[in-house]
Specification:
The structure holds three protein chains of three kinds. Chain A is mainly alpha-helical. Chain A is built from eight helices and two strands; from the N terminus they run αααααααββα. The longest helix of chain A is centred in the last third of the chain and has 31 residues. By secondary structure, chain C is mostly helical. Classes of the chains: A mainly alpha, B alpha+beta, C mainly alpha.
């Protein structure tokens, strides 16, 4: 795939430059809200909104920001979008807001967002910036939701709140607790590396 | 000089945009958010006071408040006390119903807790909470089987969480009685 | 009593890194050497305590009296960012030795979510001034403890034969999981009365 095309900007976030698995950014929310599928999904939507909003704004005003004050400007823009998202979730989905707790406002310091503003949106046009935001959010989302699926399935024996396994199943409580989150994500990162290594080997062999 | 002016202009502009859009969003959502909070509390209060259709909240302090429950004919049918204190891992916030003579509990709902899922967390489960309906107050938690009217059976493997719930109820009741006086 | 409870709770039982997942980025990035872990830990503790004080004052003397609670997040993150700058400038000018010890870690702290997380959680729980102070200090110490233990383990790991795909982030996360498991042993310290 060619660098610089729209399709590339979108797809790189999903795999080659996946924010969680490759760049190891935004770990805090990834670990904290992936205990159930629904929480992971809600968090993903919030990140999608904030990242698109901030990438769009930064890209629009990129030419008039003096570089000395760009970080404060990024921070104000990001925290504005985060507050909007937070107020909206609180108003419309109080239960989800309670489950996510302080992790919605913590999107502000999610390194993914500021890294994309700095590394991409402040240098590129509006369309690539939005596509980049969507790609990165999806890359973040699928890891989050996959982790949610693993942890909820093993920890509750359910998916999305529906009980899948009968009473014979003893839930792995540890999966819902912090250690379960750390170990699952660690194994996921390892698996991704393993896939990359095998792919690289095959390419060299052929 | 020109650069300084531009910095100030950009920062002011971004600040205005941020403040403006936040003020708009805040005004559009604040009523709804307050309403959600109030409704969540009231629904819980009505659930633990049998027969209550209307409740009135009185705040005692930061962690404790109580509700008066009234039925259709506007006569007092019971109270609900909301209290939060440390449990096993962090704060447990709960609300429990009390009969008008303050002698019996009429129900219990755990609003917030961070107890261990699958163990301490089982304090939120219905069968265990059902023990609190009609329980004599102040109460205590025992292991195995209950022998007195004011006892509940602690969850196996989560004795500390169970005892914490009992303690939070008793302390809440004491604070409530103090406030009523 | 209550203050002690908050302190133990945040420093050990509900450790920022191992139970709340805050400050994972520096935890994985900086925890390679014990000496740098200690430096980072103290820098974080210092800034966190200061942040606790300043954000509390801002919230109760600026935001609430003027009816601007919705500016909380914006105000907090700006306060943290400028606080870090000021601390850095002050140390550089007046406390040279401390600057040489902590200096390189300070810029990294702005994006340390443990700091903002601490301010937000303290605000969410409506702690009073003293409680917020203790919460910030305890949180910083807890972060330091987790970071230093991790660095100690990682130093040993240098000589271990880790499977290739797990090298780096993977094995660090798994170790963090085991550490979290160990720290769960502290649970019950606050409730067992």
């Amino acid at each position: 795939m060619k660098k610089g095309t729209i399709a590339y900007e979108f797809l790189k976030g999903l795999w080659a430059e996946n924010p969680v698995l490759v760049m190891v950014l935004g770990m805090c929310p990834t670990l904290a809200v992936s205990n159930t599928v629904i929480n992971g999904f809600a968090m993903s939507l919030a990140v999608l909104f904030v990242l698109s909003g901030s990438n769009l704004m930064v890209s629009i005003i990129r030419k008039i920001i003096p570089s000395q004050v760009r970080l404060p400007v990024f921070i104000i823009i990001i925290s504005t979008f985060v507050t909007i998202a937070d107020l909206f979730i609180k108003a419309q989905f109080p239960d989800i807001s309670k489950a996510l707790g302080p992790f919605v406002p913590l999107i502000i310091v999610n390194c993914i967002i500021i890294a994309r503003a700095e590394a991409f949106a402040s240098k590129r046009g509006i369309w690539p910036s939005i596509v980049d935001a969507i790609g990165m959010s999806f890359g973040f989302s699928w890891v989050l939701v996959l982790l949610g699926i693993i942890r909820e399935f093993l920890g509750f024996g359910s998916l999305g709140g529906f009980k899948l396994l009968g009473p014979w199943f003893t839930p792995w409580v540890i999966m819902l607790l912090p250690p379960g989150a750390f170990v699952s994500l660690g194994i996921l990162v390892g698996l991704k590396n393993q896939v990359m290594i095998s792919l690289g080997k095959r390419r060299r062999a052929s | 000089m020109k650069l300084a002016l531009r910095m100030i202009a950009v920062l002011t502009g971004v600040g205005l945009f941020s403040g403006g859009s936040l003020a708009l969003t805040y005004n559009a959502t604040i009523n709804r958010i307050g309403e959600n909070d109030r409704r969540a509390k009231e629904v819980a209060a009505k659930e633990v006071i049998p027969g209550a259709v209307r409740v009135e909240e009185t705040v005692i302090d930061r962690s404790t408040s109580y509700f008066k429950g009234y039925d259709e004919s506007d006569s007092l049918v019971g109270y609900a006390v909301m209290n939060s204190e440390p449990g096993f891992q962090g704060n447990i916030k709960l609300i429990f119903g009390v009969t008008p003579d303050l002698k019996h509990a009429t129900g219990l709902i755990i609003l917030d807790n961070v107890e261990t899922p699958g163990l301490g967390n089982r304090i939120v489960e219905e069968p265990w909470r059902a023990q609190f309906s009609g329980l004599e107050l102040p109460c205590e938690a025992v292991k195995g089987t209950k022998s007195k009217e004011n006892q509940i059976v602690a969850i196996t493997g989560a004795t500390i969480s169970s005892k914490a719930v009992v303690r939070i109820i008793n302390n809440g009741l004491a604070e409530f009685q103090e406030a009523l006086r | 009593m209550n203050l002690l409870l908050i302190f133990i709770s945040i420093a050990l039982v509900n450790n920022f890194v191992l139970a709340y997942f805050l400050g994972i980025c520096p935890f994985i990035g900086v925890s390679g050497r014990a000496s740098s872990a200690i430096g980072m830990g103290f820098a974080v503790t210092f800034v966190m305590t200061l942040t606790a004080v300043v954000t509390w004052l801002i919230k109760h003397y600026l935001l609430l009296p003027f009816g601007l609670p919705f500016l909380e997040y914006v105000a907090f993150i700006l306060v943290i960012a400028s606080l870090v700058q000021f601390v850095e400038m002050y140390l550089k000018r007046f406390v040279r030795p401390l600057y040489q010890a902590l200096g390189i870690y300070l810029p990294l702290i702005t994006t340390n979510c443990a700091i903002l997380g601490m301010a937000l959680i303290a605000s969410l729980r409506q702690y009073n001034f003293l409680e917020t102070l203790v919460f910030g200090f305890g949180g910083g110490l807890g972060f330091t403890v987790a970071l230093v233990i991790m660095a100690g383990i990682r130093e040993e790991l240098d000589t271990a034969d880790v499977p290739r795909p797990l090298r780096g982030a993977g094995i660090t996360l798994i170790i963090a999981g085991l550490l979290g498991l160990a720290f769960m042993g502290f649970a019950g310290m606050i409730g067992a009365s």
